[in-house]
Amino acid sequence: MPRKKATEATAAPKTAARKTTAEKKVVAKKEIFVDADNAGFRAGDVYNALHDNEGAKSVEELEKLTGKTEVEVLLGIGWLLKEGKLKGEGGKVVLA
């Protein structure tokens, strides 16, 4: 009986997969000074945005309308809530 030829399996040479890590972006945080003057100005920004654009607005909508950060908008909302000029309506705020 004739011998079978041994077949050699040829595997492709393995190449080491190079892991790349995404570069971390450093975002500069804007400092917000929390004092009566700054809170009052942010309250004015929020009040004007709500007055000019009628209806209940979310925090995200107020951020876009005022061009302020979430923290600044919340600072203004807190001021106006304390003064009784705003009321909550379904997770949004509206002028009282």
Structural features, described:
The chain has 96 residues and is mainly α. The protein contains 3 helices and 2 strands. Strands 1-2 form a two-stranded antiparallel ribbon. α1 packs across α3. It is elongated and about 100 Å long.
Cα Rg: 30 Å
Low-pLDDT runs of 5+ residues are none
Overall residue-averaged pLDDT value: 86
Tell me the distance between the termini: 101 Å
Amount of helix = 40-55%
Q: Structural class, from helix and strand content?
A: mainly alpha
Query: Mind describing the biggest β-sheet?
Result: 2 strands, antiparallel
Write down the secondary-structure element order. HHHEE
Tell me the total number of β-strands.
2
Tally of alpha and pi helices: 3
Supply database-style keywords.
96 residues; 3 helices; elongated
Question: Briefly, what is this?
Answer:
The model has no long low-confidence stretch (mean pLDDT 86). This protein is mainly alpha-helical.
Strand and helix layout:
Layout: H1 36-52, H2 59-66, H3 70-83, E1 86-89, E2 92-95
Antiparallel strand pairs: 1-2
Helix pairs in contact: 1-3
